[in-house]
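Board notes (copied after class):
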Amino acid sequence: MSARTHTRSTRPDAGGVEIRLPWWAVALPAVAFGALLLLILGPGEAHAATGDPALGQLLERIVDLLTR
């Protein structure tokens, strides 16, 4: 009884290793980039907020969720 031999496939090897990142490894740098971009775009508006505080509350909630 002869042993089976494994033959190589005819298609060429990709030559690389597949790397899969978790979702947060992409999301966190994107959120940080967006926050820094907002800070850069509006440095002259550094006065006390008297209008709608929705953006501030949104940013606070995002920070709270990320620090848990």
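Comment from the instructor: The longest helix spans residues 23-41. The radius of gyration is 25 Å.
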